[in-house]
Amino acid sequence: MEQRVLGRTGREVSVVGLGTWQLGADWGRVREEDALAVLDAAVESGVTFFDTADVYGDGRSEQLIGRFLRERGDAGVFVATKMGRRVEQRPEHYTLENFRAWTDRSRTNLGVETLDLVQLHCPPTPVYSSDQVFDALDTLVSEGRIAAYAVSVETCAEALEAIARPGVASVQIILNPFRLKPLREVLPAAARAGVGIIARVPLASGLLSGRYTRETVFSPDDHRTFNRRGEAFDQGETFSGVDYETGLEAAAEFAELAPEGASSAQTALRWIIQQPGVTSVIPGARNPEQARANAAAADLAPLPPETLRAVEELYDRRIRAQVHHRW
After folding, report:
1. Cα–Cα distance between 221 and 231 in angstroms, integer?
2. CA 197, CA 219: separation in Å to the nearest integer?
3. What is the structure's pLDDT at 22?
4. Where are the alpha helices (DSSP H) in the chain?
C-alpha cells in the first residue's frame, strides 16, 4: 500500500489506516478476539497506521492494540493515540502534570516506552492559543514519553491555529464527501507548513457505506443512537453533523458515483485519499471483512474529474447549509 510521510513526524504511514474507536466503545460491543482479528486483517492488507485514544473504552482500545503489538512484533505499525477526554473539558486541566499522567497510562496500555504520536483530543478552543500547553507537550518530547504531538480538532479555525504551532506534527479533522470545508483552507495551509492531515469520520459514521435505511436500528450503546444531536459530545462526530434523513438521501445519490467494482464506502475513501494534503484516512472496522475492504480502496484508480465535480455539486445542494457554517 502507498505510504506517505506523516507531517513533522518524518515517519511514513499507509494512506489507509485503521481507526479503532469501534474496538473500544460507543459502537456496540466488540469481543476481544474479534477486535484482534480486525487488527490482524488490517495489517495483512498493508495498513501500517492505527489511530486510538485513551478514552475509547476507557483504555480498552489501547490495551487491545498493545496486546496485538506484543503478539505481532514484526507488524511495524505506527500508533497514534489521543488524550484529554477523560476529564471535564476545561482548559485548566491541560497541564504538564496531567499530560505526564495521561501519557504514562497510555504507555502502559500500549506496552511501549515512547508513544509514536499523542494528539490532544478535541480540546476546548482556548487550549489552542495557550503557549503553556504547547510548552508542556515539548517537555513530553524531551522527556522521551512521546516522539511527537498533534491535535484532533472539531473546526477548521482550530485546525488553522494548530497548524501555526511549530511543534504540531499533524492535524486530525473530519473530512469526507459530506464535509468539504477543510479543502478550502486547512489542507493547503497544512501542506505549506509540512503538517500531516489525518482524515477521520471518513464514511460519515457509516452513512457513506450506503447500507443504512430509515428502518436501521442502532444499539443503545452506539453513538449513532445517543449522540445524533450532540447529547454526549460534538454532534459533528456522528454522521458528520448531517441530519440522518438528509444523509440517507445524499448517500443514495453518492452511491451512484461509485466506479464499477467499487463499493460506496471504497469510493468515499478513494475520494479522500486523492485530496491534496491528505496523509492518511482512518476508517473503522467491526470485522476483518470491513478492514480488508477499506484497505482495498487504496488500490482503486483515482476518481475522474467529473466524479469530483459531482461530489461538490451533491455537497452544495444537500449538505452545505447544514454543516458548512458550524465546522
Report:
1. 13
2. 31
3. 84
4. 32-44, 60-71, 96-110, 131-142, 156-163, 186-193, 223-226, 244-255, 264-273, 288-296, 305-314, 320-323
- Grid cell listed for 61: 482500545
Longest dimension (CA), the chain: 53
- Give the range among 42-46, 50-54, 82-86, 206-210 with minimum mean pLDDT: 206-210
Write out the DSSP string of 106-174.
HHHHHT-SSBSEEEEES--GGGGG-HHHHHHHHHHHHTTSBS-EEEE-SSHHHHHHHHTSTTEEEEEEE
The pairing of strands 117-121 and 18-19 is unpaired
CA distance linking residue 97 with residue 260, whole number of Å:
53
Asked whether the beta carbons of 198 and 52 are under 8 A apart, the reply is: no
Label residue 74 exposed, middle or buried (CB < 10 Å: 0-12, 13-18, 19+).
exposed
Q: Strand, coil or helix: what is 315?
A: helix
All three cell numbers of 111: 506496552
Of residues 4 and 222, the one with the higher pLDDT is 4
Contacts (Cβ under 8 Å, ≥6 apart) of 84: 93, 94, 102, 120, 121, 122, 123
C-alpha cell at 267: 469510493
**Residue range 282-291, pLDDT digits in tens:** 999 989 999 9
Four-point Cα dihedral 5, 8, 10, 12, nearest 10: -30
| pLDDT bracket for residue 77 (50, 70, 90) | very high
Q: What is the pTM of this model?
A: 0.96
Contacts with 280 (C-beta within 8 Å, 6 or more apart), sequence order = 4, 6, 13, 14, 15, 16, 17, 49, 196, 198, 199
